[in-house]
Write a sequence for this structure.
């Protein structure tokens, strides 16, 4: 009996899925706060670090192999390098907690319309949108409604 149960565990492994969508760009310094910095990491290793950190929502890397992690609530805007070129070869990857609804020829199109559920420190969700001028990706946070208790 126990060998059958053991076999079932191998047939149905539990996996945690993280989807990252990479685009060219860089966090806007005035609306961002770096949570962690790592030196000499490849792009793949940088994303792996984000997977390990539960609060990580975005990774940023450049041609110097510096890896920056950003936590939920600590980033609002990311510069959109539409032409795909930046002096430092800057790239970001947004962590999607829900899979994009559609595949696309452009990775940026897979970001929009996805509500990513999250539950910590009164943040309930986040969504990536594009600024009206297409200069920035913007992260909009859903917040829980705090109940006001008054004395009667």
């Amino acid at each position: 009996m126990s060998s059958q149960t053991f076999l079932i565990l191998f047939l149905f492994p539990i996996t945690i899925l993280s989807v990252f969508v990479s685009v060219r760009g860089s966090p806007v310094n005035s609306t961002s706060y770096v949570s962690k910095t790592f030196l000499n990491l490849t792009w793949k290793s940088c994303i792996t670090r984000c997977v390990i950190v539960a609060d990580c929502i975005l990774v940023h890397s450049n041609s110097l192999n510096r890896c920056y992690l950003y936590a939920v609530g600590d980033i609002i805007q990311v510069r959109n390098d539409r032409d795909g070129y930046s002096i430092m070869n800057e790239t970001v990857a947004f962590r999607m907690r829900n899979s994009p609804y559609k595949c696309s020829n452009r990775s940026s199109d897979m970001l929009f319309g996805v509500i990513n559920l999250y539950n910590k420190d009164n943040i309930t969700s986040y969504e990536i949108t594009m600024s009206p001028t297409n200069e920035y990706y913007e992260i909009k946070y859903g917040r829980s409604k705090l109940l006001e208790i008054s004395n009667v």
